[in-house]
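Example record used in the benchmark description.
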Amino acid sequence: MIPILGKSLKLFFFGFIPLFLLSSGSKPILDYPALNGGSCNFNVTGKYNLKIEGIASFQNRIQKDERGNNHNKLILNFVQNNNDKVQTIEFVIASNKITQNKRFTGYYRIKTLNGLINGFDGVYGFADINELNELPFFIKTGGIRILKNHEDAIDGHLEVQFKNAKGESLNIKGSFSADIKL
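Model output (structure tokens):
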């Protein structure tokens, strides 16, 4: 009787308990911190290595091109609080799909812009650096993920690379919680 009880206890302690502990799992570690509304938190590497904590806002527009086609445009604008080096970072997410509620939830991969921005369907962006004779940086690769899109707030994160005319790059990664800009 004791050997059967001993085997049962061993099976329980060395079999079921580890299986139970492993299967319970844990919450994944978040790369992006929760933010207050109207704020952004970005890490910048490349030509400049800095942390941007600032103000985030957005505008949602429907624009008509010269052919009469309507395009949804979501304009995200980020400005650093102390305005040290980065003056502004701006993205335009343009979509040819017109929806009634103009929701932009989802992942937007950067597309190459060949020509004018008029009628462009994708993400376009630039970073304006506040230094003497500094060339603007234009978006090259990466993506923006919109997690939540409400009428007056948008939450998401981004990981993008910008380049200027000299070939110098900025890599920006972080999260934002943008309020509507009236």
